[in-house]
Each structure stands twice: as structure tokens, then as C-alpha cells.
Input
Amino acid sequence: MALECAHCGTLSPEGTTRCPKCLRSTHFVEVPTGPTRPRSRRGWAMGAVVVLAAGAVGLYLKTHPRAPEAPPVEGPALASADDPLQSGPELRPLAERLRAESNPSARLRQVTDALRARQRARLAEPDEPTPAPRSPTELWRALQEPSAAVTELDLCRLAVTLLREAGSAEAQVVERQAPSRRGEPVDPSGARGSFLVALGDHATDVALATLVARSEAPGEALTARALSAAVRVQAALAASARGDRQEAVAHASSAVEAWPTSPTPLAARARVWLEVGGSGGLSLADGDLRAAVALRDDASYHLARARLALRDDRLGEAALEASRARRLAPGWGSAALAVLALGPVLAHLDAGVSDGCQGLRDARAPWTDDAYALCAEGVPEDVRLASARRLLGSARDPLVLAAAAVHGATGLSGRVGARDRPETAAWLRAFGRPDLAAGLLGLLDAGAL
Output
């Protein structure tokens, strides 16, 4: 400890009683001292580096702010969307059995087989109304009801809930980005989306009970926000089917905002606009479908645009969109039948496209066998009429119903609801039967129609 003279500031060693400079013996102040040495050039350099690094970090944080946490999906209250993977006591016995299997791929196969064995409910067809979303526990109960309908998303949510309850926290719902079958669209429904369950190096199509390598099933793993949006897509389509315009539009719009990387919410909202959008629905649906095609060039969206253009009397555009759908999905019966209906328009436009009737023969859907009998050469008339009647009795798609009516099946007016009549009439005109179209719309005496 050194002593500093309060009068002249001279430092003196500890124990000094008189200042060596001013010779005063009073007012000494103790000051701490330590070893000192001149700062080296290296020290100055390191200091400069630290200052520059701090400045660089500050600039980066200023220009790259931290991304905020994703807010919850806004929209009408929907418990199945707020917590789409909520488990419950009824699921725990199966989850415990899954927990005993340590291999992820075997666990994935086990949950797929268990759901397959339990399922009595039917998988909703692409052309039938979409069922409302349920919680995983409600889905578990509904699987045993033969009268119930479930979707791919329902089955995938239930499977992932069980896997996570069993300890597989990395199990995910994945939206397909490639068709499950060659020559078909990614999403034949054109609005619901198509989904898988991924765990480890494998993925499973729960609806078909098939297990494939994850690399062979390209798709987008859904975040919690995207999964919630996918549930809202299903809720929007269900609300639209029962005519609830306000709820359908609200759910669909919130899904579009929350899940911008997927075309599915856009396609679903387009379906909502077409079904309950009123007089402005066609133009609103057209805008959403164009945006969906920009995200994924899928046959189902092109055929949806063909249907829309046909209702709006834009025959050339409808024919070209149908031909694009046919080229993208040569094994899809709906696209083949649309090309068959719009064949004269395509011929007038000189737009070369493969034969629609041939496409019906090559398609895989069960109904396409009867549809092929309507256009194939050499088919006896009684066989053709029987095929038309079977189609009319089982189909829901306005395109298929129109084809059946054109080939002699009666009772069309009893099979087509008010919402589908404009499109069905448009297909009847495309098939060359404006008289049937007028009868369906009530403009002429429908007779046996």
C-alpha cells in the first residue's frame, strides 16, 4: 500500500512520515498499488479485435432479429385443432404395448396393424362429404362404428398420438408431395390433402397399411401450427358440406394464413367458395386454385379449374385444364372421363391429348370399369345400360353422374342435390345433351330424368 501526499500528490512508500517533495508530515492518503507494465502491442491488437467482434455481433442482431414464436392459429374455436394430438386413458393400453417394442420401424408397423384391425369405419371417398374432425380419443371410438367415416388425416393423427404416448416423440404427420400410386394425383380429393406417418427411417400409409422407406415418401413434416391448420381444412370442408358458409370460410382462411407452404388450404378454400361462396364464388375459387397450382402442379387442381371454367362457360379453358390433368395423371379415371366429355372442344382447339376412353380402361378406381363400358366399342347395349345404371346408383361426382345419364340411366334428378346441379348440367351440355341439362335445371319438362 503506498502513501500519497494530499498537498502535492507525490507517492511515497508505506511507512513514510514526511513528504520527500514538500516536506510536510501531515495529510498522507493510502492508495492501492500493483505491478504495472506498459501495454504491449499484442494487448492493443486483442482489444481492437474484441471491439470489432462486439460491433459485428451488434450489427447482426440489429439486421437479423430473432424470429418470434409462431402464434396459435386464429379462427373459430375448435378443440381438435387447438390440440390435435391430445391423448386419453382409452389410448394408453395400446400405447403401453407399443412401448414394449424398441425398434422404431417395428413400432410403426405395430400401430398401423392395430388401427387396421380395429377399423370398421370407412375411409371417406374423394367425392363424398368430408367428416368433421374429432379428437384422437373420439377417433379411437369411431373406428369401430361401421356407419362412421374417417379421413387420412384422422388416421395419421391417431397413429402419431399413440406413438408419442408410447415414447416416440419424433413421430410426425407428413403431407405427401408425390402420389402414392404412379399416374394418379397427389391428392385425389383435390382439397383434403394426403398424409403419412413418419418415424425414424420409415413412413407408413395408415389408410393402406403399407410401410415404405422415408426416402421413398417425399413430403413435408407438419409442425404443430401446420397440423392445426390441416385440421381446420377438414373442419372447413365439413362446414361447407352442411352449408355453414361463415364457419367454412373462417376455418379455411385461417388455415391459408397459418400454412402458407402447402397448396391444400388454398384448394380447400376454393372448394368452399364454389359450394357456399354465392355469386362471387367462382372468381374467388379461381384465384385460390391458381395459387395452389403455383405451389404444386398437381392434376387434381387442374381438374378443379376445369370444372370451374366449365360452370363459367369457358369451354376452351376447361378443355385445356382437363387435358393438363390427364397428362399429369394418366392413370386417373376422373381426368380421363373429363377429357372424354370435352373431346370435341379439344379437337376444335387442335390440342392433342391421349384418348380418354383408353384412360378409363387403364385407370385403377373400381368405378372406371363401368365408365369404360360406356365408351368402348363393341359393348352390347344392355351391358352398357347396366353399367350406366350402376354408376348412377353409386357415384356422387357430377361428372360421372352426367356420363351415366347420357348413356341411358334414368333418375338423375333424384341423385343430384341443388348445389351440384349447375356443374352436372354443364357436363351434360359438354356430353352433347343440352336437353338433359335443361331438364335438370327445371327449364324443360324433365320427364324420367
User: Anything to note?
Assistant: Residues 41-63 form the longest helix (23 residues). The longest strand covers residues 172-176.
